[in-house]
## 1
Amino acid sequence: MPALFRPSSAERRRIREAAAREARMEVRFVVLQLGQRRSLTGRGSALNIAQISDDPAFADTDFDDEYAPWSAFADGVALTEEGKGIFDLAIRRRGDPDHDLQGHVTVYVTNRQVVRVCSCDTEY
């Protein structure tokens, strides 16, 4: 059975601060949603990209337009049997009636610890 990852308060703060910098907004306005991706090679859909892709660039996956709330991530998400997780978090602005996407950050987990938080261009 795969292990669950629950980010520590320091890890949650690091992720939220990275998202705020990526979207150029104050942390208090950041709303994060955990994006689901689907495999283009028949491996299904998952919140943890590492469960459906071995490609470092995730080129064999696509966005599924399904999102889980930040609380689902904070409460615990499944890792691979090797203890790996790659999670794509959508950034939205609190109070935005259109819920427009402000950016993304990707969170990499190894051995139940956040080892990397980045966007396409920036390492946080």
## 2
Amino acid sequence: MKYFGGCDVGSTYTKAVILDENGKMCADTTIRSKINAEQSAIAAMQEVCDKVGLKDSKELAYLIGTGYGRNKVPFADENISEISCHAMGVHVTNPEVRAIIDIGGQDVKGISIDTDGTVKSFAMNDKCSAGTGRFFEAMARSFEMSLPEFSNLSLTAKNVIPITAQCTVFAESEVITLVGEGKPTDEIAAGIEMAVAKRCFVMAKKAG
């Protein structure tokens, strides 16, 4: 049996996966990215290799590196941008999809794809962390919650309290003020998510 691997070294999390020769996913993992991108890739790949009984990633038939640190994936046979990987991955799993929004740790991408999974166009916000994964982490800290706890907070909201600040620092300050005023935390969280959704909509429109 031949195995094939993929490693996505992101700025915040590193993901790894192994497929068999029939395209079936045999193992996957997500770990927090280390300061050293290469060490992140090694740790993630070793974890999935252990799950399928391989000594290390050298035993894979083919390995692709992607993401922010794709050039740091040891033993990778090929490095491909995460934009192209998103496009082909979505095409394989759901060929009817034509638009992708990727909220990463440090940027947000809007991607338009063709009928064969190729990238038609894309837009990217990489100059400001507002609306990114790190933005959500900052907001969770404002509520003294973990990110998983924060992600469920808005589900009980009956109203949405708008967040007007565009910058992460100012938005965090605005949230702290609203919490101090006794505003419902679930409605504040809903406002945060609405602000991010609007930014993503703009990004998707730019991508066409």
## 3
Amino acid sequence: MATQQEETARRYCAQPPQRLPELPPDLSLPRTRAILANRSKWVNGTQVRYSFLDGAGNGVAKAWLTEVHNGFEEWESLGIGLRFRPEDNPPEAEIRITFADDGSWSYVGTDCLGIGSAEATMNFGWDPTTPYGKATVRHEIGHAIGFCHEHQNPFAGIEWDEDEVYRYMAGSPNFWPRETTYHNIIRKLSTHQVTGSKWDVKSVMEYGFEPGLIKKPEEYRNAGIPSPLKLSDQDKEYVRTWYPPLSPHVPELKPFQSAVLGLGSGEQADFEVVPDASQNYRFGTFGNADVKMVLFEAAGGEDLRFVTGEDDSGEDRNGRFEVKLFAGRRYVLRVRMYSTWGSGGASVMYW
């Protein structure tokens, strides 16, 4: 449990607005739902690099930096397929962290790839070494791997005392304008944006709330919600579902030989690519499917470096990219399915 001082001076994550894709208005509901539910998830097996934008924290206490490292290690230790690697050169990192007096926040999942390389994608605005601060670290990293705010779950059944919520959040210590409060608390996510349906009040992605802010469910009207301070069992279950452990055995994709994907929504297939000639190659998918495919190059040990990728979701085409590969080097192609429809299934090939 958070201390009484932390509970009464509770500061909240002010998540930046998500940039939802502009999908064709006549796109089928199943395709739309699959794309919105999976669009911000990383391709499983990605090595997500994080860096402190101002170098080694620009005078920030070493204990603060250590706690951020600990947060990434805790998520990875769950046995997920994502890997987190510290990066000394901020422009090379997918997640760039600052400690500005700007609240705590993070972009969601792969949305951070659309942020300029000189800009932060995550910020910690208060001491991350207290129990509440440690939970904040886990919360923001949760955003960075694709989690949204749990209390905005459309299946939670929360009815807010909206006037009281706006009044409370406008005061100390948050001083939020109405639009920030609406975006981070009042607004319910679309049912198309979430996977799973059960509200997890113990999730580290849940805010704690004072008594009197929630009208329903009744049990939280007078009691409020205490601040969750650790990853819940459901947090762990969901992240392992999105990013399951990687198989040690990856089939080789041969040139001019298509491989049937046979994937459901959110599932992924991985292939080893070992070219026998240094030249340009084309990669592409075939069939009725919305797919994200990403090519990595083995960079020594377990390190994989991003080479290129393609996302054809919501478009009337199959994904294609052309890239120069080098003989004797090892590459890994990861293909994540949004949705597939019609007959014949989907496949991938390079030539």
